[in-house]
Specification:
- This protein is an all-alpha fold.
- The protein has helices at 12-16, 33-45, 60-80, 83-100.
- Helix content is 56%, strand content 0%.
- It is flat.
Length: 101
């Protein structure tokens, strides 16, 4: 088993996890080079095709209730936490961010 991972860049993690690949499908570009060039120029100048906003299908009462809770939530939680607990949460978040790099 050790012979498989003899190269330094080959680890068990790197064999099936590829961090460089995008997680979502990107916008489709035309195959024709003239159309592609036109689209790139239009996007660069800010005249690219605009996609219409999808209709809001949410329940207005639920949206209003959510906004009420969201406006109170963070402040109430911060007031409830002790300084040591806030520091521990912040330290955990920093470590998680640095672990990604």
């Amino acid at each position: 088993m050790a012979a498989i991972f003899s190269h330094p860049s080959l680890t068990p993690f790197s064999l099936w996890h590829n961090g460089g690949m995008p997680t979502r499908a990107s916008k489709k570009r035309p195959r024709d080079t003239n159309q592609l060039a036109y689209q790139i120029v239009q996007e660069a100048v800010g005249l690219g095709p605009t996609e219409p906003e999808p209709a809001d299908t949410r329940n207005p009462a639920a949206v209003a209730l959510s906004k009420l809770g969201a406006s109170k939530g963070g402040k109430a939680r911060a007031a409830k936490l002790s300084a040591a607990k806030r520091s521990a949460i912040a330290r955990k978040a920093v470590l998680a961010r640095w672990r990604k790099r």
